[in-house]
Task: inverse folding
């Protein structure tokens, strides 16, 4: 994004900070927050860019932001709140801004996931060993169900991806100024 018009930066920063705090505390991004952002973003875009262009910026950003994270949601790698939050960020920043923020978010989320994986490596080793013992003890009847349950408990858990979106948005917005 080449420069950020005045109301967009503060609106996006407020949105992503509230979302990140909520995601850290409750592992959820509230629908009221995303809905409010989507409603506020439309008149902001129309005021800045005019009727047709503003609606195009709003819709293009909304679609780009949401579609970037949709595959992650469909593969159950992230929640629907993350997808909706990115769509709301895109509604403020337009398609190009949403794409840039999405790329930054992917890098930040990937580095964060890798760091968590490396930090929890010893825990994963212990849990996977325990899981394998459970599988070995399970007989032919019920072995599959026990195997899936045991392996699921050995996952690294979920990351509050709203935090990665907040960091990615902040980095891109400040880099654009």
Result:
């Amino acid at each position: 994004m080449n420069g950020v018009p005045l109301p967009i930066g503060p609106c996006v920063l407020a949105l992503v900070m509230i979302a990140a705090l909520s995601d850290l505390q409750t592992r959820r991004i509230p629908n009221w927050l995303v809905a409010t952002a989507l409603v506020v973003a439309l008149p902001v875009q129309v005021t800045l860019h005019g009727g047709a262009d503003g609606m195009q910026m709003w819709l293009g950003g909304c679609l780009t932001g949401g579609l970037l994270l949709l595959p992650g949601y469909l593969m159950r790698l992230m929640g629907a709140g993350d997808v909706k939050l990115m769509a709301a960020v895109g509604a403020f920043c337009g398609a190009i801004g949403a794409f840039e923020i999405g790329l930054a978010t992917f890098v930040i989320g990937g580095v964060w996931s890798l760091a968590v994986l490396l930090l929890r490596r010893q825990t994963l080793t212990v849990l996977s060993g325990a899981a394998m013992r459970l599988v070995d003890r399970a007989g032919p009847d019920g072995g599959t169900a026990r195997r899936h349950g045991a392996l699921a408990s050995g996952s690294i858990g979920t990351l509050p991806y709203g935090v990665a979106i907040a960091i990615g948005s902040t980095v891109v917005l400040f880099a654009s100024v």
